[in-house]
Each structure stands twice: as C-alpha cells, then as structure tokens.
Amino acid sequence: MLQTKPQTRFDYGHRVERVMAYIADHLDEDLSLDKLAEIACFSPYHFHRIYRSIAGETVADTVRRLRLHRAAGELARSAYPIERIARRAGYGSVEAFTRAFGSGHGEPPGAFRARFTPFQPFGTGDDIMIPVKVRQFDGVHLATVAHRGDYHEIGKAFDKLGVWAATRGLFDRPRRMIGIYYDDPESVPQAQLRSEAGLEVDPAMSLDDGIVLRHIPAGRVATIVHKGPYTGLEEVYRQLYCGWLPGSGEEASDQPAFEQYLNNPRDTPPSELLTEVNLPLRG
C-alpha cells in the first residue's frame, strides 16, 4: 500500500473504485491505461502503480479476471458459440482462449460447458449428492455493499468493498468474506435480485461511504463446501434445497442463505476456489 495520509488514501480509493466499476461495465470498450487514468483523474505516469497498490492487482489482471469470469457464465448459461465467447473475452483465437480458460478453470471451455446441462429432477438415480453438514455457526458482523441484479455479477460489489477496506487498513489480519443472498433466482426477475457483499468487521467500527453494517446471528446451518468456479454454485443450491432439505427433517429459518469464500479469486485458479454455502435452520 502506498504510504499516504488517511484522507488522501480514501480519495485514491474512491478514484480506483470508480475505475474498477467502469471496467466491469465496459469490458468490450477501450480500457487503455490512458483512458482509465483519465477516469481516475490520475497522471498516466503514476496511475498503474497507484491502482496496483490499492486494488491488489494490475489493471490487466482485473480486465482478464472479469472477462474470463463473464466467459464462464456465458459458457454455462448461454448457447453462444465458443468462438464468440473467446472474442468477447479479448482472445484472437479459440486456441488462445482455450489455453487461458483451461489454465484457470482446470478444463477446456467445451468440457466446462458440458457440465452445465439443464438441471434434471431428483429421483432419476443418476444424481450424486454433495455432502451436507449441519453445524453451529458462530455469528458475524459485516460491512456490506448492496448489489442488485444477476448474482453472477456480485463481484463488482466485492471489488468496491475491497477497495474501501484496503484504504482503511482492514486487511491487516484475515477477515471472513461473505455474500448474502436474499432471493430465489428461479422466482424473482434477475434485475430485482437482492444480495450483499460482506467483510467481517468489529460491530463498533464506524462505517461510511454507503457501507452498511449487517449481522448474521449465531445458529444452526446446513453447509455444503463447493470446490470450483462460482458458476457451479447454482447446482449446489439445487441440491441443498431440492435434494437434501425435503428429506432432512429440518426447516429453514427466517434468515437468508449466505456464502463464505474460503480463498481469494484474485490469486486462486477458479478450479481451486472453495465456497461454503450456508442455509440457516430453525432450532
């Protein structure tokens, strides 16, 4: 982190946050360093170092990460040809895209897509249930950023939260990163889905910049740990709600489901990501 005065750090954070939001919303447009430096109101000579210091990755890393994340979503949730997806991700050939995608996701795009066929109902005898563990959750207070819309795009809220936390020195120790998901994407229009990106904080901490304190209370939860890209989490929820819950003898509580992210997508290949999906239970 650059050694700057607190107010200057906060100002730099706002400007870097503005750039990250622009990148996420304009992945198919001009994302040159000169253009992004102009958006941040930084000199192009210093912008890259300031961005990397606060964001924890280079601009090129951010663009690559977000384009490949979008590509994974398109492979899993659309019928777009792989050639089209490769071009949108910024690759000049399917071969280059396949190498980049495979190095992170652990398999080529075609094999990845094949795993996301339309869901089949339970009871066919072909389903492999993911282990579910009922445990006691200890509760947590979170600084949160709201996200409205496709759950697959909550990364924008986490990027904003990460910049806010970094400029306040909150990554001086490990803190839980948690996403809260309020709505069923099968029942609520995508544009109206409500979720929040959260970072563990002390409940007495003073929050600002629209950051809201949330409390997930202690209690019993049903937990599945998913290894792999976040795109695969829809299947985890299907198994938890449609496969496990009806025959478990348990009842869901009046609290939203939440996910705890056990490693960092910025330095972990998507194939190695660990996500703990939690369904709060009564009693």
Provide an overview of this structure:
By secondary structure, this protein is α+β, with helices and mostly antiparallel strands. It is 37% helix and 18% strand. It contains nine helices and eight strands. The protein has helices spanning 6-25, 33-40, 47-55, 59-77, 82-88, 94-105, 109-114, 155-166, 233-244, and strands at 133-137, 140-148, 177-181, 194-200, 212-216, 219-227, 257-261, 274-280. It has an eight-stranded antiparallel beta sheet with strand order 1-6-8-7-3-4-2-5, covered by helices on one side. α4 packs antiparallel against α5. The longest helix has 20 residues, at 6-25. The radius of gyration is 20 Å and the shape is globular. Mean pLDDT is 91; it is low at 119-127.
* % residues in beta strands: 15-25%
Major sheet: order of its strands? 1-6-8-7-3-4-2-5
Distance between the termini: 45 Å
User: Given the C-alpha coordinates, what overall shape results?
Assistant: globular
Quaternary: single chain
Q: How is the biggest beta sheet arranged?
A: 8 strands, antiparallel
Total DSSP E strands: 8
Return the structural class: alpha+beta
What would the average pLDDT be, to the nearest integer?
Answer: 91
Question: Could you spell the SSE succession in H and E letters?
Answer: HHHHHHHEEHEEEEHEE
Rg, Cα atoms, Å = 20 Å
* Uncertain residue segments: 119-127
Question: What is the helix fraction of residues, given as a range?
Answer: 25-40%
Total helical elements: 9
